[in-house]
Amino acid sequence: MLFDWVFYLPVIAIVVVIVAMSVRILREYERGVVFTLGRFSGVKGPGLILLLPYVQQMVRVDQRTLVLDVPTQDVISRDNVSVKVNAVIYFRVVDAGKSVIQVENFRQATSELAQTTLRSVLGKHQLDEMLSERDKLNNDIQDILDAQTDAWGIKVSNVEIKHIDLGESMVRVIARQAEAERERRAKVINAEGEEQAARKLLEAAEILANRPEAMQLRYLGTLNTLGLQNNTTILFPFPLEFGRLLSGLAGAPGGDPAPGSEPAGGATRDHG
């Protein structure tokens, strides 16, 4: 009996070791790429996985979203302005088999591709577009990266440009440009206000010209307003008709009376 236990004990130990080497447990976000005698035999997981020791090997792949910080890149814009730009990329593995078979290190490959794509895309745009159309640039970079990493089983979900650093001289130039733009807008707004005021004054003058009584009422209203103020100004009403009469008399040759006026002696009659 003891001999039987001595014989079966090593066998049981070998079986336990083989079972222990065969069992793999994958988490919910992990997948296992299995190779049988060096050939790809499928993707397994998550949960409990059984492998044949020394015959099958498994490579774990994390399918959670990864964050890649793109190092600062020196970019020359389309209008020949040198800037320093860095970005951040969010991506995840959607095909574990391709991420292991098609590329040696998908993290490093995605990082290098992101750096070259960032320089290439931003170099086609002017500085003003980099500063004002950042969302459009993010979408362009994301589309290019997503298309090129699709063969690796990678999905680029988002790209964000973090910082665009300018030199001090360029910052001063942009500040002067912004100040000039604000002055231009202020002058345009002032001119538009003057134009609107002139149109309203023209409309008011046309209305007052149609009714002389309205002009007189306006004149009296102005006198009333000035009279309420505490000042020493003396106002002397001067009718406009009287001014026109004096102008006509001054312009008549030889002192002739103005047209439509009676001669000086016309007011006297001989009753004899």
Give the SSE string: HEEEEEEEHHHHEHHH
Total beta-strand segments: 8
| Tally of helical runs | 8
Please state how the strands of the largest beta sheet are arranged side by side: 3-2-5
Cα end-to-end separation = 184 Å
Q: Which percent band covers the strand fraction?
A: 15-25%
Biggest sheet features: 3 strands, antiparallel
Q: Return the structural class.
A: alpha+beta
Shape: rod-shaped
Low confidence ranges: 258-272
Helical proportion, percent range: 40-55%
Mean pLDDT: 81
Radius of gyration: 47 Å
Structure description:
The protein is an alpha+beta fold and 272 residues long. The chain has 8 helices and 8 strands, in the order αβββββββααααβααα. It has helices at residues 2-22, 96-101, 106-122, 127-132, 134-149, 168-210, 212-227, 240-251, and strands at 23-26, 30-36, 39-44, 47-50, 56-62, 66-76, 82-93, 154-165. It has a 3-stranded antiparallel sheet. Helix 3 (106-122) crosses helix 5 and helix 6 packs across helix 7 (212-227). The longest helix has 43 residues, at 168-210. The protein is rod-shaped. The model is unreliable at 258-272 (pLDDT under 50).
SSE blueprint:
Layout (H helix, E strand, L loop, with lengths): L1 H21 E4 L3 E7 L2 E6 L2 E4 L5 E7 L3 E11 L5 E12 L2 H6 L4 H17 L4 H6 L1 H16 L4 E12 L2 H43 L1 H16 L12 H12 L21
Antiparallel strand pairs: 1-4, 2-3, 2-5, 6-7, 7-8
Provide the descriptors you would attach to this structure in a database record.
272 residues, alpha+beta, three-stranded antiparallel beta sheet, 8 helices, rod-shaped, disordered C terminus
